Amino acid sequence: MKKITILSLDGGGIRGIISCIVLRYLEELLQQKDHPNAKLGDYFDMIAGSSTGGILASVLLYPDGNRKAKYSIQKAFDLYTEKGEDIFNVSLWESLINPFGLFSEKISQDNLERQLRDFFGDLELRDLIKPSLITSYDIENRKAKLFNTINAQQSQQNFLVRDICRATSAAPTYFSPVQIRSSYGQIFSLIDGGVFANNPTLCAYAEARKVAFANVLENPFKPNYPSVNDMIIISIGTGTEMRSYPFRKYQNAGKLAWVSPIIDILLSANAETVDYQLNQMFMTLGKRNRQNYYRINPSLRSASPEMDNVKKKNLEALIQAGLSYVEENSTLLNEIAEKLIKNKI
């Protein structure tokens, strides 16, 4: 039997460029080792994403006319580097009347929605080429809303991909919440899935346990309802940061002072906790299978930790952070590529 290969992509706004750089190198390895036109979407059995990771997942699983992956990761990289400034742009007037996003969302959603509409058009969730899991949070019903390709194909819970991407990237204080409608007419009021799963790897694992992959992928060599023993999981972050919050500065801080730090702490702590849990799960396996979980989260180095810093200097710093990781971890990435080739359908 072949393993179920799962790719999980963290949130992080424009820092998704780092994920693109790592994935581009991985895709180039697949092209060298397996097929010159290899695309990542054809090598993973499930792709999960939160926020910017949800957008990347949707790009990778976009279908061509033969139900194969249409786009390489380079398409997503181009989207970030060419359209990122438009998406995250804040005009001088907006910064004057709404300094630091204190009175309404920091960034207008209009540019983001236009770019998503132009790219995804009327593509539906059920049409993605593989099982997917994209996160968001329902603020009216106070529960997680997980967008699943399998559910979309088997029920009326189908959505436009552009609406899902808008929902998963509706980061509080950056973009306003959004209301989207299912194909059945049900309305959901949603914000960024990163508020509960900025690292969606554990969500992806839980969802994969429920999927009859052999049936869905029409391949008898893939297991139905896989256990952790049957999985290869690659989890990619958008950069680690070492920002410190001094005790003296915050021991008497009020709500306003805590807004930015608490968001930062919640997002990073969430990702670290999920990584710990997955590591512990895989450590219960035999020596060979315990090596099938990979957490890739490059150092930001000189890049800004801000999710909306689209200055040219910072974009280059994000690219360099990704390239530095690739150079220092080429052996590891080669190992992952070999496993993906061995386990592809």
Automatic annotation (TrEMBL):
PROSITE patterns: PNPLA
Residue span of motif GXSXG: 49-53
Family: Belongs to the patatin family.
GO biological process, one term: lipid catabolic process
Gene3D superfamilies per UniProt: Cytosolic phospholipase A2 catalytic domain
One Pfam family recorded for the sequence: Patatin
Catalytic residues, chain numbering: S51 (nucleophile), D192 (proton acceptor)
Gene Ontology molecular functions: monoacylglycerol lipase activity; phospholipase activity
Domain PNPLA stretches: 7-205
Location of the motif DGA/G: 192-194
Record's keyword terms, sorted: Hydrolase, Lipid degradation, Lipid metabolism
Superkingdom of this protein's organism: Bacteria
Position of sequence motif GXGXXG: 11-16
InterPro entries associated with the record: Acyl_Trfase/lysoPLipase, PNPLA_dom
Name under which the protein is recorded: Patatin-like phospholipase/acyl hydrolase
